[in-house]
Amino acid sequence: MARPVRVRFAPSPTGPLHIGGVRTALYNYLFARRNGGTMILRIEDTDSNRFVPGAEDYINESLAWLGIKIDEGVREGGPFGPYKQSERRDIYRKHVKDLLDAGRAYIAFDTPEELDAARAATPNFQYDASTRGRMRNSLTLPAEEVQRLIDEGQQYVVRFKVEPGRDVVVNDLLRGKVTIKSDILDDKVLYKSADDLPTYHLANIVDDHLMEVSHVIRGEEWLPSAPLHVLLYEAFGWADTAPEFVHLPLLLKPDGKGKLSKRDGDRLGFPVFPLEWHDPKSGETSSGYRESGYLPEAVINFLALLGWNPGDDTEVMSMDELISKFSFDHCSRSGAKFAFEKGKWFNHTYIQQLSDAELAKLFRPAAEAAGINLDGFSDDYIAKAVGTLKSRINFVKDLTEQARFYFEAPTTYAPKDVKKRWSEQTPELMERLAVLLEGLDDFSAAAAEPVVMDWIKSNELHMGNVMNAFRLAVVGECKGPHMFEITEIIGKKETVKRLRDAIRNIHPDEPVV
RNA sequence: GGCCCAUUCGUCUAUCGGUUAGGACGCAAGAUUUUCAUUCUUGAAAGAGCAGUUCGAUUCUGCUAUGGGCUACCA
What we know:
alpha/beta; Glutamyl-tRNA Synthetase, domain 3; Helicase, Ruva Protein, domain 3; Arc Repressor Mutant, subunit A; elongated; RNA-binding
């Protein structure tokens, strides 16, 4: 019974990888690593109509960014290739023929129009044992006629012949035995002559068998077709090596009804894709977690906990910790609303674990995008600057607003703060402060702060008024890190300059727009 | 319509018949702070409903309700 664990993630290249798909990939990966198994990436491109250029690269890049490592796949190779279904036509053709020869499948010539007509004529029409006898297929047509139609180049499909009157049992690791009657299954299309490609169902079973997949871990949307897959394994005579099934609950909309969709992200302002995606057809751009300033570790951690828990209260876990704790025993069976608020918190938490230098590195591209000119500032300066802001941000991109004053002197001053903190006497007070600061030799926070505090005390000044006006002059508004951390970083010259600029430029009496 | 799956605070979840139903996010209040945050403390907040099994049900069973999925020559 104990055979090597081999799992696969099998997306179709029909667009960017959805965050729900990412979670499915993650659970496959965690399970594989936990059990010393193999992670396969198989590209299921059997729908030639929906193929989207760039989607496959996107999938690879996304998984790489997230740290989900593939052992066997199109790029990685492996002993069970090819790993792209469109390159496995010969294999599928052979297996379709096997099924046909064994009488487990048949050829059907009904056109889409004829099928539509049948559906319109019969309520709840289904192509199955009760209707196949009156359709145009190799069961109803004479053999010569079938051959003639094929020779004529008529397009056809191969349908699976589902025998009615059976209870089909799917053994799901999460849900136990799910039993359904074979009567409600239809004769699914397994192969289309039009593009010489199988449908998902056939390709999936053949590949999983040939690739010796031990566990099929996929979304709940596949549960209804799982009985068909069980029947297919039987028909091929592979029932004894059929994989275990795990049907994962779906990711749902944060509000309202239904499963999470691309639209929800646009509507509620969070990404539903790991990476930014430019649709080659529509030309529209969808935001990604990476470009939105999420750390891959945070996305992984957040996603892992949407439908799984380690069995205790631990929440912040690295990939290695997730692997060491992962088990389907602690997987939930119900859909999880995608509450991205907690994702923000995870990102905040992971940012705290970054060193100042690491954060500075991430800040650079974000600053550039926001039009902050970092030229002339040393790595050390930037690291110190973002370091003072680290605890205050959820995303790297939050820095672009909050860190700006480290690189550009304020040109405007928040009207609300001016009104509250800048009185008639303030300019004179600030000039005295500027003079005091100019006289300092050591401008470090540790040295400067006590001097200014003493000055305030000995002159019986109001600390709140002094410090807030000071802050307003240096930062442009009354918020930000500790004042003397700021002044230490920007230095004496810049601090004094900003003080004098403010004295010159702030005019609280002027009406502000 | 048919079939299948699910149902604990607003959200993600713990509990594997006996608990004051725990944690986290978010929210509120307080403390800290020269500002804004951070941080810390505290608080409000849940077993869908009805039957049954049982000495005892959030936990097991059934029904109802609700939510979700599937019902293509898409995956």
